[in-house]
Amino acid sequence: MMSRLLLSSTPLSAIATPFESTRLLFPTHLRNRGNKKTSSLTREERLGFNPAFRLRTFHRRSPHCCLSTPVVGPTSSSSSSSEDSLLYSRAYWVSRSQIAWNVDAENGSCYLYASETACLSVTNDGIQGYDVRIKLEVDNTGLSENVIEKFPHIRDYRPFKVPSTLDVKSLLKSQLAVAIYGSDGKWSTATGLQLPGVLDEIFSYNGPLGAVFSEEAVSLYLWAPTAQVVRACIYEDPLGRDPVEIVTLKESNGVWCAIGPRSWEGCYYVYEVSVYHSSTLRIEKCIANDPYARGLSSDGRRTLFVDLDSDALKPKGWCNLADDKPILHSFSDISIYELHIRDFSVNDPTVDADFRGGYLAFTSQVILKLICSVSWNIPLNDMKALADNQMLESLPPDSDEQQAHITAIQNEDGYNWGYDPVLWGVPKGSYASNPNGPCRTIEFRKMVQALNCIGLRVVLDVVYNHLHGSGPFDENSVLDKIVPGYYLRLNRDGCIEQSTCVNNTASEHFMVDRLILDDLLCWVVQYKVDGFRFDLMGHIMKRTMVKATNVLNGLSKDTSGVDGSSIYIYGEGWDFGEVEKNRRGVNASQFNLRGTGIGSFNDRIRDALLGGSPFGHPLQQGFVTGLLLQPNDHNHGSKADQERTLAGSKDHIQVGMAANLRDFVLTNCDGQEVKGSEVLTYGGSPVAYALSPTETVRVVRVFLMNYIWLLSILLPVIHSSTSTRPRDQLLSLSQVNYVSAHDNETLFDIVTLKTPIEMSIDERCRLNHLATSIIALSQGIPFFHAGDEMLRSKSLDRDSYNSGDWFNRLDFSYNSNNWGVGLPPREKNEKSWPLIKPRIGDPSFKPQSTHILSAVENFLNVLRIRYSSPLFHLRTANAIQQRVRFLNTGPSWIPGVIVMSIEDGHEGVPGLSQLDPIYSYIVVMINVCPTAVSFAIPTARTRTFELHPVQVVSSDEIVRNSTYEALTGCFTVPPRTTSVFVEPRNT
């Protein structure tokens, strides 16, 4: 989940222990890897790592005592000494009957040890302090098939038999270890155990969880099979004071339950869970929120008893909202506009001051700005140290003082994206008028209702792939306190995987999978959101994603007040880290999702259009930014190299414009007929992977990282402070193709950085529109970052997650695009300051209001063109293959020009059905060249093509100069222009 509008995230807390002596044994440069605030790398750069690092707290033991000095320990294996062997969990209790361990036990014996009080220690004589010692025999039948399917990364481990008479349920509440002894009776190695496999087999549970309300009572249910004691502390207030009641829960098969009076509603509670935690080697009393929390206190430290079914929490007409939602005939009709809740209104004087930056800003009569995206994370604090805008505006555009001022207050102001989720099921409190109580629930619902009623659907950006905290003491740790070592994915040493930057979750485990599905159902049924964008979806198992799709699709208006068939799911299908190439099971990566109908972002078209990648040289040019045709000072190789790269980029773009379909046939730059899957990226993998147009999300920018809640639909109208538009003028969109997103530089900034420094501002503005037009006119689902349409700038900030309102400002009055508001924050941008300073310091780089207004009009026009014909958003792969063609192909192509035709059924074309009652044929010409270009299509001779009527009446004089000559079939397009020609039917 991403949080478009977040309060400042709390940094990872120092591990709190009751002891004085603490030692840090991990390298200094890794200490803050899990904390976005302190890392000098962007999130994308950090995703290039697969660190085995984990901050762990444990206690060295003597064989005579269960307590000793705490130490923050190492995270990778080196040796299995008696001192550190229990600090790791290298063996897996994979099922009721098998323990797997990567050891050689041919001539020795293996023993399982348990201590209910966590007093195990390792001495030269072996493991001491145990209550139970069980000999394990080697299982020569090997690991079972279902175990290998669930844990493919340990398929070669040796299995040991667990005696069938063993009381496994009781043992799982203890500290556990296994040890190997040689034939001479001396121990050789020992380690702790990872338990998810056996927990899933014995304790998988489908009953109620969380706080369940009835007419007379409130029942609490908590899944915590390894816990020894669970108590609920009840509070009257969200902050301060002692609990008014402490209730001990009773356990049944791993689920703890208590029943209380209905008067608990409106109170707050936390769980006190006594449980063995492998990170400390102790039984800890962990204080945690309910994993199924549906309400929270303002500081996020207590769970609110809130009944989401209460009529008091439902806006008028809420129960009938399904009937008021905009009609969605096909997912191919979607377009997505990504916007931070705070960005939407915080700087808007036309919005009520009490509503700015919050949910209720979307309920006012001035809501008609382009769409918004909502961010997700639990509230961390509500302090708002405001920047002195008047002082900042007085500083030079290339000064470093603005960023210094913003950086000084960035963790106390009201701005943050919220990359680090703590809990998943509660609306963000800082966007509500009162973060305590049920206000956030009511106001979030009002926001969804208001947006639906003006023709918009709402997509929630969810971050299920990682959690902010772990361990028994971190304030931001929840799930790892309830069932330690279960919810978070561990490596072979038992350390938490952090390839997503922080603590990776493990959807391959039954109750993690269930928690994700339950959370999705809550957002759909209780908050009536219309879709989900999954952050780093490739780190979630494919079966979880498919199951989610099926479960949501099965919802109906009659049973749940929701039409599940209209809920769209898409996400980031990147394949990296410990899940890469299905090492942890079949993951939800781009190539694995084909045929599921789940959309994924297409980074191929992004890189081809803009050049390079988020990880490459910032001046690397692409198809739109001047490669070969208007080179900058960067060394792009020889002219032949540039010609080849440009031609290859064109192939990538054309495949993307055909919805990135793997079986779409086109002529490549070598003149060969190939499928989309046979066009290769520069790394050698296939460009195309989709089987249907809705499985591709078009983006031409950087990786779309956790942004938390997106509204998925676009308004074809501009912000108005006086009136709303008729509903039939609103566009309901649902496709996902993108040129930019919240992370890294904005589209305008990246175009400005990569184009030659001498290029005029007029030309740069045209290229900004050219890039968005390619996305808007492609098959598949177009995706736009808020501000793409108004030349949005963040003063070249490449990672503005915590850069405050100053660098993230959106101006819906169109007076400014926020260019040149100072050098971007030092932490993420200083190495590029030498490139940035001469650009933002030059007044000729700054767009004027006229440029912004023209860009907005052009953007809206291209959307009107997209929705003027169903041919621009075809619903099936077969329809795209039959109707879409790319011309100007092969070795003799005109560099910098893409020509796409879309043919509908008409007289003389047997077998092709008619979809468009207005146009029978469409030709799109994209010219990125600095000069006009003519291109003849022999089959177009004598046809009745004309410039699209939207462009005919456009205020853009340049596009109006586009021409078609029927005698020769020649189309002429002005420089840096996308022109659309249509053949009207006789009617």
UniProtKB/TrEMBL annotation:
Alpha-1,6-glucosidases pullulanase-type C-terminal domain location: 814-983
Residues covered by the Pullulanase N2 domain: 89-201
Gene Ontology molecular functions: hydrolase activity, hydrolyzing O-glycosyl compounds
SUPFAM superfamilies to which the protein is assigned, alphabetical: (Trans)glycosidases (SSF51445), E set domains (SSF81296), Glycosyl hydrolase domain (SSF51011)
Domain of life according to the entry: Eukaryota
GO BP terms, alphabetized: carbohydrate metabolic process
Domain (Glycoside hydrolase family 13 N-terminal): residue spans on this chain: 208-293
Family to which this protein belongs: Belongs to the glycosyl hydrolase 13 family.
Name of the molecule in the record: Pullulanase 1, chloroplastic
Entry-linked PANTHER family: GLYCOGEN DEBRANCHING ENZYME
Originating species: Rhododendron griersonianum
